UniProtKB/TrEMBL annotation:
Protein name as annotated: GST C-terminal domain-containing protein
Family stated for the protein in its record: Belongs to the GST superfamily.
Pfam families linked: GST_C (PF00043), GST_N_3 (PF13417)
PANTHER family: GLUTATHIONE S-TRANSFERASE 1 (PTHR44051:SF9), GLUTATHIONE S-TRANSFERASE-RELATED (PTHR44051)
Domain GST N-terminal: 1-83
TM spans (from-to): none
Highest taxon of source: Eukaryota
Length: 237
């Protein structure tokens, strides 16, 4: 069985959702932020000195693993026979690979860069602020254009690329930047479709039952970084 060490309001929601989509058994071990970063309980998990989440332990093989995409590939290919990934002979295989890796290599990286820059106290006209804003906007525009032309990121099939990508434009916004998705109607349509999937609903209820889901255009008025982390109520239903 896959044991998922789940840090509340984190990328670990991706792995819970993945397991729900695959209808595979798993166990959640919950950890609470302290009050923004990883708590000692997560850093004390054997093999997870960095306090990463998601972090999984496979009780059958003894494997410990962190990093969302690595965990996703491990589960998909070891236990799901490749389900939610496209085969190499699929005409959209390259699209799948691109958007699957875009989720962390570009979109999540852009959000995190912007989050740090926005909280660094730089002047609005500082070159780094302009760079971060421009990169984030360009990534969102590219994703939006893709989703205006395709139902899912890889094409007509729902895949792990979608599972890995939702976090960045939803829950990540609790940490910043406070970006509106109103200009990105393709992304908003896609988020609605994702949120209507029973597996997504079950995953979010199991992983973060108290969290208000950021599926609409507007972000919270303030980030968790600005209000003392999870001790505030801005993230609660």
């Amino acid at each position: 069985m896959i044991v998922i060490h789940h840090l509340g309001i984190s990328q670990a929601e991706r792995i819970i959702w993945l397991c729900e989509e695959l209808s595979m058994p798993y166990e959640i071990v919950n950890h609470t932020r302290d009050p923004v970063t990883s708590p000692q309980s997560l850093k004390s998990v054997p093999g997870n000195g960095l306090g990463k989440s998601p972090f999984v332990h496979d009780t059958e093989t003894g494997v410990n693993l962190s990093e969302s995409l690595a965990i996703s590939d491990y589960i998909i290919y070891k236990y799901a026979g490749g389900k939610l990934a496209l085969k190499a002979n699929d005409p959209h295989f390259a699209d799948y690979l691109y958007w699957y890796h875009f989720s962390n290599s570009t979109m999540q990286a852009n959000f995190v860069t912007s989050m740090f820059v926005n909280n660094s106290g730089l002047a609005p006209d500082h070159p780094m602020q302009h760079f971060a804003d421009q990169r984030l906007e360009a990534g969102l525009q590219l994703m939006d254009e893709r989703l205006k032309e395709n139902k899912w990121l890889a094409g007509e099939d729902f895949t792990a690329a979608d599972v890995m990508s939702v976090f960045s434009v939803t829950t990540q916004r609790y940490f910043g930047p406070q970006v509106s998705l109103a200009p990105y109607q393709g992304i908003l349509r896609w988020l609605k479709d994702c949120s209507e999937r029973p597996a997504y609903q079950q995953a979010m209820q199991k992983g973060d039952p108290k969290m208000k889901l950021l599926l609409g255009a507007e972000p919270p008025a303030q980030s968790l970084l600005a209000v003392g982390g999870v001790t505030s109520d801005i993230w609660k239903k």
